[in-house]
Amino acid sequence: MKIISHRGASGYAPENTLAAFELAVKMGSKNFEFDVHLTRDGKLVVHHDYDLKRTAGRELAIAGLNYAELKKVNVGNRFGYPFERVPLLSEALDVLSPAAEWINFELKNDDNVYPGLEKELMKFINARPGIYEKSLFSSLDYGTLKRLRALDKGLKLGYRGQRLKTALLLPAIMRAKAVGAVNFHMNLRLAYKFHVAMLHKAGMRVCVYTVNKREDALKMERIGVDGIFSNYPDILSKAKTEKEVRR
Ligand code: G3P
Ligand code: MG
Question: What is the C-alpha separation between 214 and 111, in angstroms, rounded?
Fold first, then answer.
């Protein structure tokens, strides 16, 4: 089971910053997830939210800022870090890609708030040798997945189930398959063995978010989940207890 650094080592360093990615690499991560946005002047950047309210206490939307303005904002005054900025995607990849075996670009583009994001990202990926092969692209926004698929028939896509329940899993699987998704990303709340089995039967790998407790990580491993998104890259690296070994 892949342990995927969720927004970098975001349990120990400010999420989606170079500090979080550097730390994840130092901790031995090989699998990475982060979120991609576009600034007003067309720069690809890494941040989770569409605005800077939660991370910087500022009522500013990324879509309304040029990168020269955005980079001055401190989004990382936590865990003892004095200043961290929103990184350019290129900077994040400079840090991650030498260590990465698998990279999940999550495009935050609800209602196409960043027109042209998919095209810009694919242009960027195709200009960086060695990245495409180990990349998977996901989004909550179905239109974004469809635009990515229209740009590239061979692209690996991940479908993210939202507000799912058992009765909605089959329609979600059909939507995921319709766009050619190879991965299905689901909330821990819904990660039951029979859901995982259904998704495997449909030919997709299953990655579960966000798994920050060791007991949940061990459970995901037992029920056959392919990957977990975790803020703690070391979630399973501590020695197992005797009880866990005997299970
Ligand atoms: O793709 C799932 C993972 O990224 C968790 O979601 O909200 O942290 O972007 P989020
Ligand atoms: Mg994400």
Answer: 36
User: Best mutation site among 135, 139, 229, 231 for ligand 1, i.e. most ligand atoms within 8 A of its Cβ?
Assistant: 229
The pLDDT-based confidence of 31 (bands split at 50, 70, 90) is very high
Q: Which two tokens stand for residue 18?
A: 């170079």
Distance CA 55, CA 58 (A): 8
On whether the pTM is more than 0.85, the answer is yes
Q: Is the CB of 185 under 6 A from ligand 1?
A: yes
Residue with CA at minimum distance from ligand 1 atom 7: 48
CB of 210 closer than 6 angstroms to any ligand 1 atom: yes
pLDDT (tens digit per residue) in 143-183: 999 999 999 999 999 999 888 888 899 999 999 999 999 99
For all residues of the chain together, what is the average pLDDT?
Answer: 95
Which superfamily does 2-246 belong to?
Phosphatidylinositol (PI) phosphodiesterase (3.20.20.190)
Shortest-distance Cα residue to atom 2 of ligand 1: 209
Q: What does residue 13 show for φ and ψ, rounded to 5 degrees?
A: -150, 160
User: Residue 91 half-sphere exposure, CB side, CA atoms within 13 Å?
Assistant: 17
Give residue limits of the domains in the chain. Answer: 2-246
User: CB of 47 within 8 A of CB of 62?
Assistant: yes
CB 148 within 8 A of CB 137: yes
